[in-house]
Structure formats: structure tokens, C-alpha cells
Amino acid sequence: MVRNSHPSRVVVLAALLAACAKEAPTPVPIVEVKGECADVYKGQVCTWARMQDTTLIDVGATVPITSVENAPKEPDMAWPPVAVARLKLPAAAQKPSGFTELTVYWEPTGHPPGPYLTPHFDFHFYTVAPEEQAAIDCKDNVKPEVLAAGYSLPDQPLPPDMAKMIGVSTLIGICVPGMGMHSLPTAELESKELFKGNMVIGYYHGKNVFIEPMLTRDRLLEKKAFELPIPTVPGQAGIYPRSWKAEYDPQAQSYRFVFTGFAPGK
């Protein structure tokens, strides 16, 4: 019979294993935090964020395909344009993401310049407080000193009837009251083709005030996942995301717009 000549070693090893098991850290779960929801054309658009304790994983919005399919064909001729929804981002995610609020606009006939004269949605994710955003009146014509690479910030002449309604003949930096100036990809501005989707960088007082996925109705009705690049924003000292994607869930019949890769500007 073979006997264990070192029973004390077995006891010590068992004790060590038990101690390690007790000291192993419990994984911190990733939790989805709800923001605000709003009714948009028979569907509910909602903001959300995923957090791991106080660490932000990603942030975004859920957009049901119902809201896209039921968007009206006739334009609202109000100026400034009226948002169809205003939704705050979850409070816990505002500081680590740099985002405060999402405003949703529907453009049933599009708007100038030429490539954007097609039905589309504007999803403005603001980096300034709601009261600062509401105070944008486009009286300040100061543009940022440096734009993102491959982007332009043109002045947009208006057709006579629109100029008469608005009271100005040119939108400096394509500035819209309540929104800000709109910086767009240069290649797209120079194209003769209608756009499908891009990332707009918004400014006012010479600083970044929003990041906007601008998406055509046709693109969204494809019900497919896709990505849009976010450019490096010169002079942006605050936190902002480095990537964006649209995930489509065929069972839920909805998109999830996801911003991630948050880091301070350079």
C-alpha cells in the first residue's frame, strides 16, 4: 500500500486554493442605462448608454424602422426647422461621452447644397448644454480656424423664395438657428450624386457643438448594418467618439446607432 507521506502539504495546498478562490475579483457587469424616449412617427426613439461601473463602453440611440417608414412626405415650412424629438442622454454618460442631448430632424425633401436634396434624417448629438444649443442664432459668423481633414464649411446662397421667408440671402457656414454651422465632406459637396449618409461636424462660436449622422430614408430602409467614419476634429479639447456604426436588429425591427472609442481631443 502506498501511503501519502506528506499530508501537511496537501492541507496547505488546499488552503491556498480556497484563499485564491475567495480573493478572485468579481467581474463588473456591463449595464445598459436608459436615457429619454420620444414618439417619432409611430415609433419610439430612445437614448441609452452601456456602462461598466463608471466606465463608458458606448452610447447611442435606438431608432425603430417604423419611425422611418411613417415619416411624412410633405415638408413643414417652418424656419428655423422644428425638431421632431429632443432626448437627453443618460446623466451618467454625459460627462464621459461629451454628449448632452440628441435632436432628431426630418427633411422630407432634403435641403441645399445639391447632394442633400433627398429625403433624410438629421441626428444631432450635441456636445454643449441644451440652453447653449437653444441660444444659437447664427449672428456669430466666426468659423473654426482649422477644419477636419477632407471637410469644408461653405456659405450657402439661398433661392429667392427661401431667402424671402428666412430674411437672409446666404447661410454663412450653412448655419441654422438652434443647430449651428454644418461642416461636410468636401468630396461629397463637389459630387453630382445624391448622398446616402455621412458624419456632419457642427460648429458655433468657432467650436464644435455637435456630431451628426445624416442619413437618407432610402439607406435606412435597406435594413442593413453600416458604419460611418468620424474625422479627427482639430481644436476639440473635450471628449468625443472615434467610431460610429448602425446595427440593425431584424427581430426588433430597429436600428441601434452606436458611438464608441471615446477619448479627449488633441
How is the secondary structure organized here?
Elements: H1 7-23, E1 30-40, E2 43-52, E3 55-64, H2 65-69, E4 85-88, H3 91-97, E5 101-107, E6 120-126, H4 130-134, E7 151-152, E8 156-157, H5 160-166, E9 170-171, E10 181-185, H6 186-189, E11 197-204, E12 207-216, H7 217-221, E13 226-229, E14 239-240, E15 243-249, E16 254-260, E17 263-264
Antiparallel strand pairs: 1-2, 2-3, 3-16, 4-5, 5-6, 6-12, 7-10, 8-9, 10-11, 11-12, 13-15, 14-17, 15-16
How many helices? 7
Structural class: alpha+beta
How far the N terminus sits from the C terminus, by CA atoms, comes to: 73 Å
Strand order of the largest sheet: 4-5-6-12-11-10-7
Form type: globular
- Mind telling me the C-alpha Rg? 24 Å
Counted up, domains total 1
Proportion in helices: 10-25%
